[in-house]
Amino acid sequence: xxxxxxxxxxxxxxxxxxxxxxxxxxxxxxxxxxxxxxxxx
Length: 41
Fold this sequence. Notes:
By secondary structure, the protein is mostly helical. It has helices spanning 5-21, 25-40. The radius of gyration is 16 Å and the shape is elongated.
C-alpha cells in the first residue's frame, strides 16, 4: 500500500491524467461496438 504523502500525490496526479483522457460512457460503448464490428469481419 502507498502511505507516504509523496507517493500518494504522484499516483493521484497520474490517475487524474488518465481520467481526463478517458472516453465517457457513451463514447466507450461506441468504441467497443466499432472494434467488435471490425473483428467480426
